[in-house]
Amino acid sequence: MQMQLDINGRKIAVDAPPDMPLLWVLRDQLGMTGTKFGCGMAQCGACTVHLDGQPVRACQTPVETSVGAKIATIEGITDKIATAIRASWVKLDVPQCGYCQSGQIMSAVALLRENPKPSDDDIDAAMQGNLCRCATYQRIRAAIHDAAKSLA
Ligand code: FES
Ligand code: FES
Fold first, then answer.
1. Ligand 1 atom closest to residue 129's alpha carbon, by position in its atom list
2. Which listed ligand is nearest to 100 at the C-alpha?
């Protein structure tokens, strides 16, 4: 089925079965490999993208349901909040192997857009669907606080 997607502000035509996961379209058809495949079961958050600003799991989002929405991936988030998050990630040396980190960043950006000054509990609640096998959770939390401070 032919579909027109809005990805990172660009209109992109794709031809895919309507129930194909958006993640497959991004990675396999469009070569946008910044969004990772982890569990494929909405359990790990590695595949997190934004649909109309909300974090979703691309591995469990049929491409058809993202038609008409603004899709944002790690390659395309460049606003003030995303820039601050990236800077804090670098400053505090957050990633270890890095595999989960684009998903972590997508969730962290969505959190700070909603809540510019999150508490530890707010961070834990917003980030609980993003797993990190290297256990960088403490640094992620510190980097979100650092980014919030730099934006204040
Ligand atoms: S790959 Fe989508 S949540 Fe794990
Ligand atoms: S940094 Fe390795 S999985 Fe998170």
1. 3
2. 2
